[in-house]
């Protein structure tokens, strides 16, 4: 079963505007971590932001913020003041805590973002 | 942040030949490395988990005899695609982590290797 769902295959956003990328997840574990990665056309995976399941405050890293709604199992990424260099594929990922260790990363299908001037 | 390198960044080979891809952690020791495969416009698919000094754990559906993984040291893991065929053409990405547990020990990804089999 799909654990991470990204419903937006692609989206356009104008430079300097904010954009929200949707991510919902499915887990029965209480302890888990949520991640967002950016993959530009060069292919490298760039870590953007992390949210732990027990973190009460939404994570922020510069222009990136994570809108964490635990009850809805949603972890949307907000990019403020978009720049042309933000054009890339964005992946949401999750790791679940098993009995005594952390599980493998599970990635969503990704959202292609194109920033236009 | 931690740096992971991959070599080569791209490779073109003839069908039937074997190709080795290296993944190195440059400034930390990686007890665990992961190998992913990514087709165009698709997400990353975990192929195997590689632990230093032990056999790799392969995901269901991944042929261990075709994709040989060796994690001989704390800074190097290799993926060998044996008897490559055109359907093996893909983008292969490795990642590494240096912390055995903890949720925020994010994986650091290599830049990827694009394999084209003719």
Global shape of chain B: globular
Order of helices and strands of chain A: EEEEEEEEEEEE
From the alpha-carbon coordinates, what is the Rg of chain B to the nearest angstrom?
14 Å
- Number of helical stretches of at least 4 residues of chain A: 0
- β-strand percent of chain A reads over 45%
What share of the residues of chain A lie within helices? under 10%
Series of secondary-structure elements of chain B, N-terminal to C-terminal:
EEEEEEEEEEE
Helix content of chain B: under 10%
What about the largest sheet of chain B?
7 strands, mixed
Q: How many β strands of chain B by DSSP? A: 11
Q: Give average pLDDT of chain B, whole number.
A: 90
- What general outline of chain A do the C-alpha atoms trace? globular
What is the multimeric organization of the chains shown? Answer: heterodimer
Structural class per helix/strand content of chain A? mainly beta
Task: Give the structure's gist in a few sentences.
With 117 residues, chain A is mainly beta. Helix content of chain A is 0%, strand content 50%. Chain B is built from no helices and 11 strands.
Your description of this structure?
The complex is a heterodimer of chains A (117) and B (118). With 117 residues, chain A is mainly beta. Chain A contains no helices and 12 strands. In chain A, strands 2, 5, 6, 10, 11 and 12 form a 6-stranded mixed beta sheet that branches. A 4-stranded antiparallel beta sheet of chain A has the order 3-9-8-7, with no helix packed on it. Chain A has a two-stranded antiparallel ribbon with strand order 1-4. In chain A, a hairpin with a 2-residue loop joins strand 7 (60-61) and strand 8 (64-69). Chain A is globular and about 50 Å long. The model of chain A has no long low-confidence stretch (mean pLDDT 93). Chain B has 118 residues and is an all-beta fold. In chain B, the strands form 2 sheets. In chain B, strands 2, 4, 5, 6, 9, 10 and 11 form a 7-stranded mixed beta sheet that branches. In chain B, strand 4 (32-38) and strand 5 form a beta hairpin. The A-B interface holds A 31-33, 35, 37, 42-47, 50, 52-53, 91, 95, 97, 101-102, 104-105, 107-110, 112 and B 1, 34, 41-44, 46, 49, 91, 93, 95, 101-112, 114.
